[in-house]
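Morning. Coffee machine broken again, so started the prediction first thing and wrote up yesterday's gels while waiting. Chain of 103 residues, entered below exactly as on the submission form.
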Amino acid sequence: MELITAIEVEVELILNYSRILRNIVVKRLDFPTISFELTSDSTIGNCAIEALDIPPRMLDSNGHPRLDLLNFRLRSRSECLQFQCGQTVLVEKIHIKNLLLIS
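Came back before lunch.
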């Protein structure tokens, strides 16, 4: 069973330095272990998502890889200006996979 829903994330990094970089790197705040897929209508902070890219190679304070990050490529580079580091936003219109419902 798949549901269309949303997850809450915190903006960690904004990559908006060249024509091809239009990415928002975020840390998941909700349901960090649940898998999901983007849909053609998926958004982050009400901005259209083009793709979920490979996460950047970032290290935590102990020198370990940050495996908790997601890297969303926006459809429009100008929309990067709507985001700030530390901002909390929703990733909406996604398919949550393999969600077990307990009743």
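The chain has a mean pLDDT of 87. Going to sketch it on the whiteboard this afternoon.
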